[in-house]
Amino acid sequence: MLKLGNVEFRSRLILGTGKFSDTETMLKAIEASGTELVTVALRRFNREKPGDDLCAPLAKLKNVRLMPNTSGAMNAKEAVRAAQLGRELSGSPFVKVEIHPNPHHLMPDAIETWLAAKELAADGFIVLPYIPADPVLAKKLEDVGCAAVMPLGAAIGSGGGLSMAEMIRLIIRDSNIPVIVDAGLRAPSEAARAMEMGCDAVLVNSAIAAAKDPVAMARAFALGVETGYAARQAGLMPKSDVAVATSPLTSFLKQDGSV
Amino acid sequence: MFLAVNGEKVEHRGDGTVLSLLAELGTTPEHTAVTVNGDLVFSKDWKNFKFNDGDTVEVLTFVGGG
Amino acid sequence: MQTLPDWLNPEPWLNTCVTAADVEQALGAESPDESTLAALLAPAAADFLEPMAARAQALTRRHFGRTIQLYVPLYLSSWCSGGCAYCGFASDRQTDRHALEFDAVEKELSAIKAMGFEEVLLLTGERSAEADLDYLRECVRLVALRFHNVAIEVFPMAEEEYRSLAEAGCTGVTLYQETYHPETYDRMHRWGPKKDFVQRLDAPSRALAGGLRFAGLGALLGLADPRYDMLALYRHVRHLQKTHWQAGLTVSFPRIRHEAGGFVPPHPVDEKMLAQIIFAFRICLPDVPLVLSTREGAAFRDGMAGIGVNKMSIASKTTVGGYGSAGSKEGQFDVSDDRGLDEFCAMLRAKQLEPVFKNWDGVYRLT
After folding, report:
1. Domain A2-234 falls under CATH 3.20.20.70
2. Do B61 and A68 count as a contact with CB atoms less than 8 A apart?
3. CA-CA distances (angstroms) from residue A18 to A195, B66, C283, C285?
4. Fewer CB in a 10 Å sphere around the end CB: N or C, chain C?
5. Parallel, antiparallel, or unpaired: how do β-strands C311-313 and C119-123 relate?
6. What is the dihedral of CA A216, A220, A222, A226, to 10 degrees?
7. Angstrom distances, CA of residue C299 to CA of B29, C268, C294, C304
8. Residue numbers of the domain that contains B34
9. Angular region, B44: left φ>0, alpha ψ -120 to 50, beta rest
10. What percent of chain C is modeled with pLDDT above 70?
11. Residue B65 lies in a domain
């Protein structure tokens, strides 16, 4: 079971709810994915577009918890406020700390994220920070009480896949908390690869919302995550990149067993 | 009284409580969060909290996001 | 008898049946773990020494280039109340008891500095009146004035005591658990403060919490089943990597050899096994420096330099003092590689390895 804070999850696929063409498709995709945790964003209530409001539709889903994100916040102070509003609105202790000051590449601000995470963890939130794949930052966030770390695979919406694989491997190696790849995954095979590498879960949004058939893609991602996780548990046969020296390296060893 | 609600000047004709403003706007209270002059007003206080003329109000809900 | 904490216990990985196929898998492991190490330590892996060496060499080059870091030990004192069955300084051994006066320490340091070393490892026995914390702190201060790295291999102490040494300029602690097998540990440490297994086990963690930057771990090969001890040692390293993520860790492989007092190791480890162990550690801890001292002979050290091993002592004296003046008569153990620094460096260069005396300048350190 995936454990985030004091909450356990059977599904290791977390879904983002943005960019869907309509609410109905989004709801069907959520159902097809088997996810138990979805992110939502805070926006001003819009009288003209009441259909954008997700609260009512999401409330209908069984077994799905909400994780408000702090997107739109430009710094820690704003992110903390967004988190508090999100908790008030959803009743959920989960928060995805997401601070991306540049609206083009949407890369997360490491420093503001750490500041916000520290304050929110102390305030009892279950904090999942979205971060660059930086092994030092990941440990610092663990130190201040985050429930997991969410390194990006590639830029949001880029479909760049696991471009940060080596860094993510280092994060996984030394982490005491779950590692969740978030952003950039394009295909279920990449989700499987992330799980095989040792990730504890993945967060997917664009790859599903922008697929030709989002509901089917949601199901495919669920299968990919399950497959990758099962493969890791089963123990993969590793690649062999053993170089064999031209002249023996071990001829100096005393062969007679003398000590 | 007049309030700045979500960036727009709005005339409030109700009794000056949050609940009555939300009813005017047509939101579902359970699906709304409210800040007044930057501070979060908890839903348990909505019946009692009274606006002052000219307050800046944000009325928020959830939309899709990654 | 004390039971091992869960994070340390190697039992789940012992006695698994390891085949040649398992060893081949382990050789190429991208994310090595305990089962990888267990496979590489198994008897079946003894037939794979050459490919293990090749992989160890490739990983050593990737993480450390073609460098060998050099350091030198300075025994400050042979006073010891301890009862370690295997040690030349145990309290029931007939040996000179001596602690260097501070001006003698200065003479030793001048000689060591003149040789070219920048990293000094200070050693004492168990805490004694002649070589207590205050004495040690002053020695650390003297060394830190002139050398870039000062490490200590002394008695375990409290976190605040380690902190006071860190403030005096100490950068690292070396502390071998000797054996992670509690029954053997109890038998080997016949009397004295060292009988406390857990207090010793947790000491590196206290040292790191107290502000020391580096911790060197190890087990004394020969005391207990080497596979048991090496798996536990690996788990100890992994535990510290996760709980003290800013620490620099190293692993040493001291092996009981011939010793004046005649202690016969119950589980002797031969050179082939030692090589197998070191290759296995390099494969499973690719970026952790692995250390080989002058307990080992010249031919073995020459062969292992750069294949797994990337940190070594040389021109060592295990007597009290001995660099600036004649040392005490007996040393803690017999030095097997007694070459001088220049000769050793020439050997390294002939193997296309660069001797490195310091990794960075300590001038901007705030202590």
Report:
1. yes
2. no
3. 23, 5, 44, 42
4. N
5. unpaired
6. 160
7. 81, 19, 11, 9
8. 2-60
9. alpha
10. 96
11. no
The C-alpha atoms of residue B40 and residue B21 are separated, in whole angstroms, by 15
Enumerate the domain spans of chain A.
2-234
Q: Is A140 a catalytic residue?
A: no
Q: State residue C367's pLDDT score.
A: 46
Angle at A12 between CA A11 and CA A13, to 5 degrees: 95
- By three-state DSSP, how is residue A244 classified? coil
Contact: A44, B7; criterion CB under 8 Å:
yes
ipTM of predicted assembly, 2 dp:
0.80
**The CATH number of domain C11-358, selected from 3.30.1380.20, 3.20.20.70, 2.120.10.30, 1.10.150.20:** 3.20.20.70
Q: Say what the pTM is.
A: 0.80
Of C171, C106, C174, the closest CA to residue C138 belongs to C106
DSSP characters for chain B? -EEEETTEEEE--S-SBHHHHHHHHT--GGG-EEEETTEEE-GGGTTT-B--TT-EEEEEEEEE--
CB contact under 8 A, A253 and C27: no
C249-261 mean pLDDT: 84
Using H for helix, E for strand and C for coil, what is the string for C253-297? CCECCCCCCCCCCCCCCCHHHHHHHHHHHHHHCCCCCEEECCCCC
Helices (H), C2-48: 20-27, 34-41
Contact between C157 and C133 under an 8 Å Cβ cutoff? The reply is yes
A 175-194: CB under 8 A from C:
175-176
In what helix (H) or strand (E) does residue C153 lie, and over which residues does it extend?
strand C149-153
- Tens of pLDDT along chain A (259 residues) come to 999 999 999 999 999 998 888 888 999 999 999 999 999 998 888 777 776 778 888 888 889 999 999 988 989 999 999 999 999 989 999 999 999 888 788 889 999 999 999 999 999 999 999 999 999 999 999 999 999 999 998 877 777 788 889 999 999 999 999 999 998 889 999 999 999 999 999 999 989 998 999 999 999 999 999 999 999 999 776 565 555 555 688 888 876 666 6
Can you count the helices (H) and strands (E) in chain C?
13, 9
Q: What is the 3-state secondary structure (H, E, C) of A5-24?
A: CCEEECCCEEEECCCCCCHH
The answer to whether residue B16 is domain-embedded is yes
- A53 to chain B: closest CA residue: B63
CA distances from C255 to A92, C182, C211, C260, C270 (A): 57, 19, 29, 15, 9
Contacts of A40 in chain B (CB under 8 A): 62-65
Q: C214, C167 in Cβ contact below 8 A?
A: no
* Yes or no, beta carbons of C303 and A198 under 8 Å apart: no
- In CATH, what number is assigned to the domain containing residue B51? 3.10.20.30
Rounded (10°) CA dihedral C178, C184, C188, C189: 80
Residue where the block lists tokens 């609600």: B5
A179 three-state secondary structure:
strand
Asked, for residue B18, whether it belongs to a domain, the answer is yes
Shortest Cα distance, chain C CAs vs residue A135, angstroms: 10
Position A229: which residue type? Y
